[in-house]
Amino acid sequence: PIVIFWFRRDLRLDDNAALYHALKSGYRVMPVFIFDTDILKQFETPENAQVEFIHQQLQILQKELGHCGSSLKTGHSTPAVFFENLCKEHTIKAVYANEDYELSARERDADIESLLKEKDIDFLSFKDQVIFSKDDIVKDDRTPYTVFTPYSKRWKQHLQPGYLESFDNRDLFCNFYQYKSDIIPSLSDLGFSKKRGISFPPMEFNGDLIRNYTQQRDYPSIEGTSRLGIHLRFGTISIRQLVAKAQAVNETFLNELIWREFYHAITWHFPHICKGQAFKPQYDEIVWRNDETEFKAWSEGKTGYPIVDAGMRQLNDTGFMHNRVRMITASFLIKHLLIDWRWGEAYFANKLLDFDFAANNGGWQWASSSGCDAVPYFRIFNPQLQTEKFDKHLEYIKKWIPDFDPLNYIPPIVNHESARKRALETYSNALKK
Ligand code: FAD
C-alpha cells in the first residue's frame, strides 16, 4: 500500500505540514496534483497567469521529485474521478492534504473525504497556509473577531516560537514512491495559452526592502512592497518562515501578514461572503447604476482620472497593482460610478497574479463599506487628493501613462463632487431601509 499527498495551495516540498506527516507515515508517498476541471471551467479567458504559474511551479516540483527517484502524478478531471481511477490502480491507505478554508474547497474536501471513506481510505488534513486558522483566534466568549486591531493583538499574544517551527522533511525524501517520470500536461492540453508579457516576481525575502517597508509601502512609484502575494497564494513560500523573518525585521510588514490571516478567518466563520453576499446584509440594499460603458472605461484605464487609469493599466499590463492604488480604483468604481463591487472583484480575480478569494473579497468589501472593519460609507476617496499625497511628482502616473499631459488628458467620465453626492445619497437611502 501507499499514501497520497495531494498538492493544492502548497506547491513546495520544504516545510510543508501535510507532506511531512505523509512522509513519516511509514508508507511510500505518491505526490499528486489535479488540474481540477470544476475550477478550470470557471476561467473566462484561455490566458490565465495563475494557471501558468501553477504549471511552471509543477515543473520545478517534478525536477525536485526526480532527484528523489519519484515523480509528480497529475490529473486533469474532477478530483472525484481522479481518486476513483487512482484507487483502481493502487492500494491506498490514506490521502494527506493541507487545509483550504474557502467554501468551495471545504465542500470539495468533504465530498472527497466521504468518497474515500467508502473505500476505507483516510483523508487527513493539516494546517499549513496560515499560522492560525478556524477557532485558533477568537474572543473570550469564543465568537470570531470582526475588527482587525483586537484580532491582531490576540494573534500576537498567541504566537509562541513552536508555531513557527519548520516541518523539516529533507531526510524523509527517500520515502517518496519510486517510479519514473510522469508527464505533466502542457498548457495547451489544458485549454490555456501563455499570457504575453507577464513575468512572475521572484520568491525572495528582501531584508533591506522590508526594513524600509513602513516608510515606503504607501507610495506606488516606489518598489517598496514584497511582491510575495502570488507565492503566498500558492504556497511556494512557507508562511512560518516568512512570519519568523517579518517578526525579526518589521512589525508593519508582519501586520500585513496578519491581515491575510484575518480575512482567511472571516471566510471560515462567515461563509455567506463566499456566495456573493455582502458581509453586512443591509449593504445588499444598495441600488447600483451598473453602467456597462463606464465599467469598460474603468477596466481599460480610461476614466479621465489619471491615478485610477494608471492603476488599471498597471494591472492589465503586469497582473499587479499597488495596494494604495487598489484602494483608489476600487473606491472609484464603487462610489464614483456606483457599480456593484462584485463586478470589480471579478475583474481583479481574473487579472491579479496574487488573486486570493479571501483577501480580494476583503479588499472589495472594505472599499464598498459592506465588509467587516470596512471604511465608513461616507468616506469617499478623492482621486486628486490621493495623487497629491501619494504620487506628488506624478511618477507612478507617468510610468503607466507614458504620454500623460495634465493639460490635455481624457475628460473625466464623472465630476468628483456630484459623484460624491450621488454616492452619499444612494448609500444613505439603502441603509435607511
Ligand atoms: P506586501 O505589502 O509586501 O504584503 C505582504 C503580503 O501580506 C501580501 O503579499 C499579502 O499576502 C498580505 N497582505 C498585504 N496586505 C493585505 C491586505 N490588505 N489583505 C490581505 N492580505 C494582505 N491581496 C491578495 O493577496 N490577493 C488579492 O486578491 C487581493 N485583492 C485586493 C483587492 C483590493 C480591492 C484591495 C484594496 C486589496 C487587495 N489585496 C489582495 C491586498 C493587497 O493589496 C495585496 O496583498 C498587496 O498589494 C500585494 O502586494 P505585495 O505582495 O507586494 O504585498
From TrEMBL:
Cofactor: FAD; (6R)-5,10-methylene-5,6,7,8-tetrahydrofolate
Pfam families (alphabetical): DNA_photolyase, FAD_binding_7
Ranges of residues in domain Photolyase/cryptochrome alpha/beta: 1-131
InterPro entries (alphabetical): Crypto/Photolyase_FAD-like_sf (IPR036134), Crypto/Photolyase_N_sf (IPR036155), Cryptochr/Photolyase_FAD-bd (IPR005101), Cryptochrome/DNA_photolyase_1 (IPR002081), DNA_photolyase_1_CS_C (IPR018394), DNA_photolyase_N (IPR006050), Rossmann-like_a/b/a_fold (IPR014729)
Note describing how the cofactor binds: Binds 1 FAD per subunit.
Binding-site list for FAD: Y213, F253, E256, L257, I258, W259, R260, E261, F262, Y263, D354, F355, D356
Keyword terms, alphabetized: Chromophore, FAD, Flavoprotein, Lyase
GO MF annotations, alphabetized: deoxyribodipyrimidine photo-lyase activity; DNA binding; FAD binding
A GO biological-process term: response to light stimulus
Record-marked site positions (Electron transfer via tryptophanyl radical): W288, W341, W364
Cross-referenced PROSITE patterns: DNA_PHOTOLYASES_1_1, DNA_PHOTOLYASES_1_2, PHR_CRY_ALPHA_BETA
Family: Belongs to the DNA photolyase family.
PANTHER family tied to this protein: CRYPTOCHROME (PTHR11455), CRYPTOCHROME CIRCADIAN CLOCK 5 ISOFORM X1 (PTHR11455:SF9)
Protein name: Deoxyribodipyrimidine photo-lyase
